[in-house]
Amino acid sequence: MNGLQIRQIAARLRGRWPVPHGPGRGFSRLRTRLAVLYAGLFGLILTLVAVAVFLATSASAQRQVRAELEASGTVFDRIWSLRSDQMRQGASLLARDFGFRAAVATEDTATVVSAMENLRSRLELDEAFILTADGRLLGDESGALSDRAEALLDALYTDENAAGVLVVGDQPYQMVAAPILAPDLRGWVVFAARLDAPQMRQLEALAAIPLTAAVRRQTDGTWRGETGDLSASEIAGITATLKDRERAVRVMRTQGLRSLAVVKTLPALIPGDRTVLVLSYPLRLALAPYYALMAWLAALGFAGLCIMAGGSWMLAASLARPIADLDLAAQRLSRGEDAHVDEAGDDEIGRLAASFNTMADEIRERERRILHMAMHDSETGLPNRLALEQALDLAGRAPTGGDVYVAVVGIERFAHIRNAIGYRLAGDMVQKIGERLQATAPHGHAARVSSEALGLILGSADAETALVEAGQLLDLLQSPISVEGETIDVELTLGLAPLEDQASALAVDRANIALDQARAARAKVAAFDAAAYGDPSASLALMSRMLGAIESGHMLLHHQPKFDLRAGQVNAVESLIRWRREDGGLIRPDLFIPMAEETGHIRALTDWVITQAIEDQGVLLDQGHDLAFSVNVSGRLLGDSDFADFALSAAAKARGRLCFEITETAVIENPDLALKIIDRFAEAGIEISIDDFGSGLSSLAYLKQIRGHELKIDRALVSGLADSRRDALIVRSTIDLAHGLGMKVVAEGVETEAVFALLGALGCDSAQGYLIAKPMTLEALGGFLADEALRTRQSA
C-alpha cells in the first residue's frame, strides 16, 4: 500500500471521528463538543421547564387577579346601585314635600336652598340644586353647572328620573334627578356625588387585593384622569371595551406598569359623555408570591447544569481519549511510521482499536510486498531498474575515492533464444546470468533493466580503467548457462557510462545507448560516446523550427528536369524540397528529412510538397509547359490511410500528370498496406515511380506486385556505366526487365555525355542528372524550359 492510500485511510478515520490532536484546538475538539452538547441539551430542557413553570404560574396568577377584579367590579356595581337608590329616595322625598313644592311654586329661593342644603348634609352629598323647567339653576352658587344646564335639561325632559354620570368641568359626578310637580312640572331636584380619589380609595378598601380604581373620562376627544392624560395602552384598552361590551378584562399599562385591568363603562346622564371605571392590578404584584419559588428553581437548575457540565466533560474525555489515540496512530501510519493503539475493552472503541491494529499490521505487510514488487522483476526475482537507480543514488553520495559507472550487459539474439526455449526457460536463463553477475561483482547491485539487458554498478579510478575492468568482467560471464539440464551458449555485449551530477536515470539511459553503440560497432565493450549519439534536444528543436518554416514560407521547391531520350525534350520534373534560412542560406535536406521521418513530422512536410507542386504545375501550364510532376513519398506514409485520403483529394485538383516516387525498401517494409494504398493511387491516375532501384537488395517478387509506371535506376549503377561492363550489363538487364513489366525507365545521376549516350543506346526512356540540369526554382525552370524549347525548334 502506498502513502496515498494510507493518507486516505487516515482521512476516513478523521472524517468519522473528527478529533484533532494537541491542545488549544477549542471547540473543534470532540471532548469539548460532547460536553457542550450534553450541557446545552440539559440547559435547553431546564429552560423549557422554567418557561413552562413561568407561563403556568403567570396564567394562574392572572386567573386569580381576573377573578378578584371581576368581583371588585361587581361590588362597585352594587355600591353604585345602592348610592343611586339612596340619592333618588332623598330627591323624591324632597320633591314631594308640600312646603318645598310651595316654596318652589312661589319661587322662595331661600327656603328652597335651605331645605336642599339640609338634605344634602344629611345624605353627605357633594352637590344639590334645582333645575327649573325653564332651565334656571337654583342652589348652584358657584355657577359651575351653568355650561351644562341646557344639555342637562334636554336629558331630563327625555327621562324625568334620569340617573348617571355627568362631567362638570374636569370632574365627573354621579347624579340622580326627581321631578317637582306642583301640580304641573316645575323642575327637578338634582343630587350629585363626586367620583374623585377619596371615593375610589373607599372602593379599593373593599377589594380583597390591593387594586387601583380610577374613573377615566373623555373630554374634547381625549381620555383624561385625575393625574392627567392616559397612556396609549390604557386608551387602547378603554377604546376596545367601548367597541365590544360594557365590561371587559384587559392587559394594559397603567401608571407605567403592565397591569391586568377591568374596564367598565359608566352610564352617562347626558348622551355623548363617555366615562369608564378602570380597576387595575400590576402583574408584577400578582407574580410576587412566586418569585421565591422561581429563584429556588433557578438556583437548582444552575446547580444541575454545573453538575451536568462537569459530568459531561468527564464522560467526553473518556470517550475522546481513545479516539484521539486512534487519530494520532492514523497520522503516524500515513507518514509510514509504526502505529499501534493500546486500548482494551469489549465495547465499540476497543473493537475499533483492535481492528486498527490489525489493519496497520496488514498495511505494513502489504507495503513490504508492494515495495518488493516495485523494486524487483516479477519474472526473474532480480532487482529492477528502479532498484538500480536508487542504488546508484546511494553510491553517488557515498565517498568511494573513485568514479561510479553503470554497466549494461546485453544478451545477444535473446529473442531467438526465447523463441527456441520458451519464455519460462528464458526467464530462468536471465536469472542465472544475473546471479552470476552479482557473484562476479558482489558490491555491484545487479539488476534487470530490460528484457534482454542486465545492469551493474562499477567503481573505478578512471574511465580507461573502468573499460578494462568491464571487459574482464564480460570474459568471466561468457561461459555457457545450464537451464534444467540444457546447456545454453550466451553471447554478451556491455555498454558503460559514468554517473554524473547524481543523474542515475540518465546514467542508465547512456549505458543502454553505449550497448547499442557497441552492437553497431560489433564490439564486445563500448563506453558511451556523446559525440556519436548527438543531441536529441537539438533534433527536436530542428523539427520545431521546420514546422515554423512551413508556416512562415521559408520552405520552397526546387525542380530537376527529366529528359525524354526518345522525344528529345524535357517532359517531367522531380520536385525537391529546400529549406531557406532567414539569412538566405539553405539547410541540406539530408539534415532534416531523415529526422522528420523518425519524429513523425514527415506528414506535414509531404502535405506541403504535394500542395506546392500542384500549384507550381499550374503556373507552368499557364506558361505553356505541360510537364509531369514527381513528388517523393516517404515509406512511413504508405501505411497512413489519412495521408492517402489527403493525397487523392489534392491530386484531384491537379491540372497535369502527377507521379509519386516511392523507394523499393519502403514497399518491402510494409508490403500489405503499402500495396493497397499504391493501388488506390494508381486507380486515381497517379503514376507510381519505384525510386532508387538497385541501391539495396532488390526483390523481384515485390516488384512484380507493384502497379508501377516508372522505374528509376539508382545513381550507384548509372555513374559507373561507361567504365564498368558489369554495371552496363546490370543496367541493360534492368531496362529490359522494366520494359517487360510495362514500365518506363529513368536513369538518375547522369553527369557525363558518355553515360548519356550509352543510356540512349541501351533503350533507357529518360535521363535525370546534372548533365541535364540541376534542381532549380520555379522561375529558373520557366526560363530553362523556354530555352530548351527554342533549342529544340532550331535543331529541327
Number of domains: 4
Largest sheet: 8 strands, mixed, barrel
The level-1 CATH class of the largest domain = Alpha Beta
- The overall pLDDT average reads 80
Proportion of β residues? 15-25%
Q: What is the fourth-level CATH superfamily of the largest domain?
A: EAL domain
Please compute the radius of gyration using only Cα atoms.
63 Å
The outline comes out as: elongated
Give the end-to-end Cα distance, rounded to a whole number of Å: 90 Å
Low-confidence stretches: 1-24
Looking at the structure, the CATH topology of the largest domain is TIM Barrel
- Total DSSP E strands: 27
Assign a percent range to the helix content: 40-55%
Q: In the CATH classification, which architecture of the largest domain applies?
A: Alpha-Beta Barrel
> Numbering strands along the chain, what is their spatial order in the largest sheet?
19-20-22-23-24-25-26-27
Q: Helical segment tally?
A: 26
Please identify the structural class as seen in this structure.
Answer: alpha+beta
